[in-house]
Amino acid sequence: MKTSKTMILTTSTLALSALIIASPVQAGSCGSHAAKASHAAVNEEVPAIYDLAGEAGFTTLTAAIDAAGLQETLNGEGPYTVFAPTDAAFAKLPAETLESLLADKEALTRVLLYHVASGEVYAEDVMNMRTAKTLNGEKVKVEIEDGVTINDAKVVQADVKAQNGVIHVIDTVLIPSNI
Fold this sequence. Notes:
Layout: H1 2-14, H2 33-42, H3 49-55, H4 59-68, H5 71-74, E1 80-85, H6 87-91, H7 95-103, H8 105-113, E2 116-118, H9 123-126, E3 131-133, E4 139-144, E5 148-150, E6 153-162, E7 165-170
Parallel strand pairs: 1-7
Antiparallel strand pairs: 1-2, 3-4, 4-5, 5-6, 6-7
């Protein structure tokens, strides 16, 4: 079983794509109140976070979510804000790091929940934030200089609305201190 999960993640990391969000989902411009209202109207038309990530081509992230058993959580009621690493972000991790995480479901779950905050945080909301508490209990650092970064991960696409929250695409996998 470990080998097949490792193969899925390793294969996924090799399949890098130039454009990760390829679904018909529209990203908000910068999260104005009008954009939030339009996001609410779209709410019933778009899938929940896990399903949307799968449809949008986040193969490594969804494989990791599957391995951790978090599908129901990320398709649950929410709302959640997810900092979603691209396949290229996962490819930057050493292969042994991925293998280690897959072998330790608890550690994998902590890493994945470090990418999720409770509630919906849009780009405009980030302007007044310095940290955000994640579902694994730790905080991520938010900086606004030459764009937005979450710890050392650059937000490459913001405000992708899901039925149960919002996704911000990031270029680096966030590793919590408790790993």
